[in-house]
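Lab notes, practical 5.
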Amino acid sequence: MQRKVLSVGALATLLAGGGFAQDSAGDWRGTLKPGQAELRIALHIVKADGGMKATMDSLDQNAKGIQVSSITLKGTDVEFTVDPVHGTYQGKLSEDGSSIKGMWSQGQPFELNFERGTFKIVEHKPGKPSDIDGAWGGTLDFGTQKLRIVFHIVNAEDGLTATADSPDQGAKGMPVSSVARNGASLQMQLKSAGASFEGKISADLASITGTFTQRDMGVPLVLTRVKDDK
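Output from the prediction step:
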């Protein structure tokens, strides 16, 4: 798994003036699609100390309150940077102040459009624990690199849910987009990484053997129960 796109930056400052600066304040939401991944991005712009400042959330990477290094608004041109990851954004604020259309660049450009609003956060009510609830860990062998991955599976009233950790990349609590079980078959999708896992649960419930697929490349992955120290 690769954890890209956003990271913590320096203090966010918006250098702007006029009516459009006033219109740009508020909560914005957009979806970034680098390759096969999907990342929900929230942008929060507020007025402070005679100017403006902003923070960002990368919800599918469990990263909140990311401080943007600099943001400028000149007329309808919106630009901001996140220096630690060498990321930049250039966009246009609509005349009615309801949307920003533009491109996020980090090595290569990706379309990222914002609209006003926030993402609805689904809260799952606890359900009766399933027989696979708990932490499951394994190692992805990509040949030149090996990465540990840990899935934390929890049953809720509306079905199985999960989060994922990539300890070797410092990533923890990444939301798993969907978890589906049919008998001994288990499927999990991680839209934030453009990845999925399909496996078979052993009869003794001690392992889940399957394939982890990312960027159309599948590698074997055997998950076994590990201590849940989340």
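Observations recorded by the TA: The first strand starts at residue 14 and ends at 16. The longest helix spans residues 19-24.
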